[in-house]
User: Fold this.
Amino acid sequence: MKNALLAKRYAKALFAVGKEENALDEYAASLNEFATMVVDNPELNDALANPMYPLEAREGVMREIVKAAGVSVIMGNFLNLLVQKRRADALGDIAEMFQILVDEENNTCQGVVTSATEISTELQAKIQKTLEKITGKRVTVTNQIDESIIGGMIAKVGDLVMDGSIKTQLEVLKESIKGSE
Assistant:
């Protein structure tokens, strides 16, 4: 997170409003959707964040996107505020920080399981239950594919990383062979 302090301030402000409006999950979904859209489209990011474009033009772009997305008035105002304050480039960081705040409120956390191939629903459920026992929180697990790990899996929840990949095991074996020479 390059704008961690800034992102935390904006996320906390939106979180306070979302909690008051009882719309935390709605705001998190909208914010994540917008952040993904901006990060995945460099032209859109440039149109919203580049100070070379007049503020009115950047605000117009955001207004049209907000209208097309049909988000709540409060979320629309928040997104427009980011453009006005030249903070649109921090949208991804703000969304990430907001999700952390929502997860803390709901006693949940996000888990990522990286595997060489797609894991089955049953295995994903077992992994989820195991991670829930370890963390003491509800865990939402998503699966990422990375063929370079060869086999096994890597599970990450917050700061906790459990690496059972074959790639890592081979690297450890390689180091141990080097050390014994």
Remarks:
- The chain has two domains: 4-103, 108-179.
